[in-house]
Amino acid sequence: MKTRYTKVIRDLTSSYSKTLMLALAIAVGVFGIGSILGCYTVINREMATNYLSTEPASATIEFGGIISKELLDSVKAFPGIKKAERRATITARMKVNGRWHPMLLFVIDDFSKMEISKFLPVSGAQNPDTQSMLVERTALTVMQANEGDEIMIRTPNGEPHALKIAGLVHDPGLAPAWQEQAGYAYITLAGLHQLGELQDFDLLRLQLSENAYSRNEITKKAEQVADWLKEKGIVIHEIQVPPPGQHPHQSQMNAVLTIFTIFCFMILILGSILVATSMATLMVKQVRQIGVMKTIGGTSVQIGSLYLLMLLAICIIALVVSIPLSRLAAYGFYTQIATLLNLEITDNTIPWTVPSIQILSGITIPFIAAAFPLLRGSRISVRAALDNYGVSAKSNPVSFLSRLSVINALSDTFRLALRNAFRQRSRLALTLGLLAAGGAMFMTALNVSEAWDKNLKRIYVQRLYDQEIKLNDRINPDSVIDRIKSMNGVTTVEGWDYSSSSIVRQGNYDVTKTYPDKGHGSFTILALPVNTILLNPTIVDGKWLSNEGTKEVVLNQLARTSGMKIGDEISLSLEDRPTTWKIIGFSEDVGSSAAAYVSIQTFEKLNESTDKIKMIRIGYVDRSKDYAAAKNREIDRLLEESHISVSSTTPVWLLHNAVAAHMKVLVNALVAMAILMAVVGTLGLTSTISMNVLERIREIGVMRAVGATPKKIRSLIISEGLTIGVLSIVLAFIVSIGLSYFMGEFIGHISFRTPLTLTISLTGILIWILIVTVGSYLATILPAKRANIVTTREALSYE
Amino acid sequence: MNREQNEIVIELRHVTKSYPVASGSFSALKDVSFKIDSRQLVAITGKSGSGKSTLLNVITGIDRPTQGSVLINGIQVDKLSESELASWRGKNVGVVFQFFQLLPTLTILENVMLPMDFCNTYPKKDRKERALSLLQMVDIKEQADKFPSSLSGGQQQRVAIARALANDPSLIVADEPTGNLDSQTATAIFELFAKLANSGKTVVVVTHEREFASYFENTINIADGVIVNAVRVHA
User: Fold this and answer.
1) Phi, psi of A135, deg, nearest 5
2) How far is the C-alpha of B86 from the C-alpha of B94, rounded, in Å?
3) Segment A84-135, tens digit of pLDDT
4) For residues A616 and B187, what is the distance between their CA atoms, to the nearest angstrom?
5) Residue A248 lies in a domain
6) Same domain, yes or no, for A317 and A234?
7) CA Rg, chain B, in Å?
């Protein structure tokens, strides 16, 4: 081995702790990139594999009437149609622990011949009879049951009926049941009839043989089929065309993982800057050695190569440590996300591109960051190198610090510490930048986390009711409402109405983006008393409803499309008929799907349902979950006694929990990333302080020679660290506000299509202050100790 | 020793070296011209700040003259680029510093091998043997595997001399090589320099220690950047 390489190895090994610290700074970023990209690639692949394995329907036609087997066969033979299947989806209820909970019943034509929207068998029977059902595996927790148990189920028009869980299935096209706080079961049509529902299939699922990934083509083809069915006497209610081949959560997941990846690259960039600064400082420390090497024949290229080699070695150590660990972390992360998305990981392979990107970025980014300082350091002239005595005479404290020195209130030590902190201003700027970026990201993560929770609480602020009951049929409200009102603990009861809707555009049919779970992508008209006291809408533009008889509408953010403005007219389908409304306001709802709010009086008039309601919203004196649950049971009994057929009941606490479950893992991941930033930031501080001390070891010797006690020196160094720490906190706080605003916009938009309220987390600030203070203190202990161990003679002769 | 029989190793022609200072410029060397023959042990003497170190730096190419030219073995070094200078210096000039300047993370042996590595002057397999022979020559071979910090000042300076000889340069320059050593060790170092001059090297030493004047064949005395007396030198 060449002698110069021996120097590289010895320089690295002579200071293990420093080498490892630099490697750690890079490793943290590379680890983050590997974890997130590993997770990203696996989830992306598995999401597509899982979802496409279900043979998702390209389009679903919601119809009225009966599609016979013969008619279905004709649809299957329709040009451009690959597969067609009849289905029905019923919103029912299930009894768990004495309480009725929402449930979706998927009615399957023939379990043994499913071709579209399939699910995968998990265990037990896969062909239920009329007394049993198959259950989606994630629904067991919500049902609090096991395979073989019986669950009491009540359909809108039927009596409670016990169905046995004959088998379990996995349906990757559905969000986990615990997330939606609903049960999912699959039954036969005969089974549905057994439950008291007389209806037939009302959904026709289609899959196209060509252009299966073009929403326009799918819509066109579905409309052709609908036209044809219409000619055969079938009533077409709606055509549902969800984004083709795309899992309901695909776009959100991609967006979140993309921003996480960007965060990780930022961590790597900051870590690389730290390494570059450290390497540059090492060169400053070794400047005489550089001068000597040049004197004995070393060229700038040879010397620059030595330090680049040293950097390469640090990068390799970082990669060796971080790549295997990142794979483990990616495994943990994608397992969590898979649970969140109800995916079955069929292949754990992280593609080779991920470690390749880690290697490439883990070497390239530090090299780019270090290239300039290293090349500059290696090009130093021999004369400048040999004459170097440490801190340049140009590094004078800035003027305001000079002025600070006349303030008598400041102790001598503190004034000196201030001056020292500002001596190497470029390094100080980098350290401050690093720490501030780390702190800003840390605070941002906690701010966003808190904003998320705060936004969730808005569910309670906007919804002043505690229970929503959807009815199967419109009823005359007076007697029921009066009876509920008279119940102890009930403060307010209002009768509302609703109808599934869509924005009517050119063409014959309502085309929605609704997924088969009826939740994702759905659009509802909510008809309510304009003077409702059970809703506290957040109006972002225009005004709330005030006139009872007018055809005015307020749209929430999910119903609003680009270009819509106050005063526009909009056509909404209402029970299959187009109705025209004037937009008077836009609201921001948390936890709602797309909704259009209209006056119930106008709704009744248009719907010819005067003095009828289809929804009851109730407020209680106590909004706690336990109280609401108990009251809900009483109200369920009352409705049962009144023979009122209930379609679904949704307590507000349930809605809150369902929304919370959607994104919590991702918010937690953001906090985990913040911790990584805290690590890099603290490393940066440790590195700077330790280098500042090393660089001034001669000066410290002089100070000790003129009488400075070890205590004084220690206090000086610690004060210096704390000064940098405090400055970084202030900067971090300022930056975190902008960053939190941006992240809140981003996460809020992909979750609710509304920004999260900018929130300053006091906990975040306090934790960061604690991290920086303790970090600064710990970072200075070692250099302070070292400075005091070196004897005055050694310090003065230090080279 | 007969100068006429020797080649001119160092030739300075009207060399001026100025540095910018707050009040304008300061001339460390003022129109200095002289020649030094090969195989000589030459002293550059003068008070602190007289310009002797600058003169040495100009000779080694560490500093470039503001005016004039410097020829070493016929090569005008002030015209070489930084990279060419490093390579030229490594092969043609051995430099010995007052504070030894050994690389602390390399052993004694490795310190001596390093110039051969940088300049690629000897085959890899021969470098260790050559370094050991040089250490033998300066009487420190038994310390070859030790690190500089474990050696005394005198021993370190011997290693520095061995390192300066690594690429077998014709010219050795030393900047106050004994300034940090006791007189007994200093004497040993000067004896070593005399031995080197006798073996065919040209050795130029910056020193202010008059008690070793007897070792030098020539002395260049410099004051305020001007050569005030030169004994047996082509001034």
Assistant:
1) -125, 140
2) 12
3) 999 998 888 898 887 778 888 999 999 988 989 889 899 999 899 999 999 9
4) 109
5) no
6) no
7) 17
